[in-house]
């Protein structure tokens, strides 16, 4: 059983006719986009708002009508993957370096669903490296600040061993923190650093989590939607 496919297809059932739908990024979200694409080909009428160039290409190929995030007032529902979800439903995202656009889309959404396999559910965040999107200018200064804190920073590299450049033209520094004691305090500190564009801590943002495991899908209602 492919758990990513299972939760991706389950989440696609939440999409209703007439909705504006935020389409997340990553290997799990790709299954959701594919399932929504099939429903669109069978007559479902929606508009998608994508969170990366990759997802935009996939959605276009499937014939899903798209608008940019700036062309819509509000997104009805966003479905996205996650890298880690803690016991109190906070998340780390950005393993695919899409967290800046993903957070902008999530913030413009009435409801957010995350789809994950059960390996992503953890007690505390931090085993997954925390992605920090930074502007290239001065990025070594930020690197040194993270190093001095003991966060073991590493620039995200491509297969060609070049610094990865995000869809927005920034770099990514991954922090290897092992365990994040206070995600809200860390997020506030990161938000205050000049040159940090966005970090991968997604706090108090998800409404529903669909978890896939060998025994099936579990739906967790994390917090009420707006
Ligand atoms: O930047 C990428 C996104 O935040 C993804 O949603 C996240 O990394 C999970 O990806 P995957 O489903 O491939 O594990």
From TrEMBL:
**EC number per UniProt:** 5.3.1.6
Q: Which CDD domains match?
A: RPI_A (cd01398)
Cellular component, GO annotation: cytosol
User: Catalytic residues per the record?
Assistant: 102 (proton acceptor)
**Per the UniProt entry, what are the Gene Ontology biological process annotations, in alphabetical order?**
D-ribose metabolic process; pentose-phosphate shunt, non-oxidative branch
Give the family from UniProt: Belongs to the ribose 5-phosphate isomerase family.
PANTHER family per the UniProt record, alphabetical: RIBOSE-5-PHOSPHATE ISOMERASE (PTHR11934:SF0)
Say what the protein does.
Catalyzes the reversible conversion of ribose-5-phosphate to ribulose 5-phosphate.
Q: What is this protein called?
A: Ribose-5-phosphate isomerase A
Species of the source = Isobaculum melis
